[in-house]
Amino acid sequence: MGKSENFGDHPQRSTVFNQDEARVDWHDKTLWFIREKRDKAAHQIPEWEELREQASQIKENVLSKLHEYLLQFEQRVLENGIHVHWAATPEEHNSIVYEIIRKKGVKQIVKSKSMLTEECHLNEYLEGHGIDVVDTDLGERIVQLAKEPPSHIVLPCIHWKKEEIGELFHQHLGTPAGNSDPQFLTAAARAHLRQRFMTSRVAITGVNFAVAETGEIVVCTNEGNADLGVQLADVHIACMGIEKIIPQRKHLSVFLRLLARSATGQPITTYSSHFKKPRPGQEMHIVLVDNGRSERLHSEDFKSALKCIRCGACMNTCPVYRRSGGHSYHYAIAGPIGSILAPGLDMKKYADLPFASTLCGSCSNVCPVKIDIHNQLYKWRQVLVKNGHVTGGKTFGMKGMAAILGSPRIFKFSGSVGRILMKSFPFLLNNKLNPWYKQRELPAPPSQSFNKWYRENKKQDGK
Ligand code: SF4
Which residue from 49, 52, 185, 272 has the fewest beta carbons nearer than 10 Å? Predict the structure, then answer.
């Protein structure tokens, strides 16, 4: 299966994932099922498109005045008795979190789902410093036990089958071998996690929305694991990217309606928990992380990627994501949105990702905050080519195509030659050196070009 031992770029990793055809088929269908659920939920709201427009405009406003909103948020948070920390890099974020834990003399913590902490590789960092971290979201716990990163931002273990989870739990939690009943496995995970909840003095959560007006944060989960962790802990650390800000509490009415419907087709997440101040005797910290976000704000072409509310809808609909699996993206955030965020952090390392798309535009169509994802994928390709971050073969191929498509005479001539070659020497194209041939055969060549056919038929019609 698509385990984390995969290495290489997106095409190489996808090749590994595609070796298990049954899994690809099932992964594809499962995610499409969620996409359809999203469609049904969206169609039940007559003002859906207005909500998307409002969400987009609120986020545009936030990005245009991010500095002001962040300072307002910080002031309110401090007034609410919460500690605020600023981190420019993942390293700073990790060491801030570790220092808080170390000062408490704690060796084990619980953590609810947070893509920011995945982005910063917090678990590895803390474990390297002797802290035992338990992810309490069930899907996250499954991939953690399997020593894998999540393959989807909302459904971290969507690439696992229940039989495999049964085997994993048998190995790690001692459940009976061969038992893959989801209800039984969920109960086993519940008992296992409950013990950790009861004994962890520090709880880390992510942040879905941070309200500048009130200084509160909102955390959305379906399992209530963030709430339980925080309520039982002496210290709550909330980690967020600086783009999570929304100006006012009333704006939640827009985002909460969009988020769950876009993510899983639910009307709302089971828990939308507001944390505004620590309860008596508790300590609360908020760590705000930049990690390239301020730099992204300067880019007119790419800054709107910061509007993302991490619903995962663009992944569920993407034909490439569904058939290549989340691990093939080798970045914390997979799929179309990951493919436009990652190159902003490291153009060379993630140069393959903007090409992992058909540019069909389905991602942009479903995005609840109207990010023009497919346009940005296309623009990233141009930036990567200009900066010399694509392979020689691809550059050569693109230059060749530009020469052919840029001249009607060369185009006509190439078409005639191509038709002869495809007809008389098909092996020149249908061979192992042609990556397309691995899964497709070229169609039979037409007897004449469209151009010729059109001219002849135009004559026949007497026009
Ligand atoms: S880019 Fe849009 S669709 Fe994709 S995860 Fe972000 S908000 Fe959802």
Answer: 49
Give me ligand 1 centre to Cα 15, in Å. 26
User: For the sheet containing 271-275, what is the strand order?
Assistant: 245-246, 209-211, 216-221, 271-275
Phi, psi of 151 (to 5 degrees): -105, 0
Mutate to test the pocket of ligand 1, among 63, 367, 373 (most ligand atoms within 8 A of CB): 367
| CA–centroid distance, residue 462 to ligand 1 (Å) | 52
Average pLDDT for 268-285? 96
Mutation test residue for ligand 1: of 116, 314, 357, the one with most atoms within 8 Å of CB: 314
pTM: 0.91
Residue of the CA atom closest to atom 6 of ligand 1: 308
**Per-residue pLDDT, 179:** 95
Q: How far is the CA of 6 from the centre of ligand 1 (A)?
A: 25
Distance 402 CA to ligand 1 centre (A): 33
Centre of ligand 1 to C-alpha 371, Å, is 7
Q: What is the pLDDT of residue 461?
A: 61
Ligand 1 atom 2: residue of nearest CA: 367
Between 265 and 444, the more confident residue is 265
Pocket of ligand 1 (CB under 6 A): 262, 308-314, 337, 366-369, 371, 373
In percent, the amount of the chain with pLDDT more than 90 equals 86
Q: Does residue 1 register a pLDDT over 70?
A: no
